[in-house]
Amino acid sequence: MNETASSSERYRQGMATRRAVLGDAHVDRSSAAATEFDRPFQELITEAAWGHVWSRPALTKRERSIVTIALLAALGQDDEVAMHVRATANTGASREDICEALLHVAIYAGVPAANHAIKIAKQAFEQMDAEKAA
Asked: How many helices (H) and strands (E) does the chain have?
């Protein structure tokens, strides 16, 4: 990462929060896959999303997880929905929490968006269960 970004306090906090939520393996894969082209984007999301928004004290990581999944589902961001459903293992958001959030999505953003997100969440939970059983 760029010396300025990686040495800022916001970046360091962001990386710590990102690792706490998404897990070291995911963050290590993302960091290893970064190129000169997308490195500025990785720095931006680490500082802004993780270092600023996700690190604020007003909401818990559980609450932020629920809100994030609902927003991503409403926007049809399938890969991000799956990633954040898997992150619930670290945030404390329960399957019931996610179900409730997706019911809200159905009413406020549309049944098709919620239906598709439910399919993605079920697949992510099945994968998590299989990994736990192995």
From this structure: 8, 0
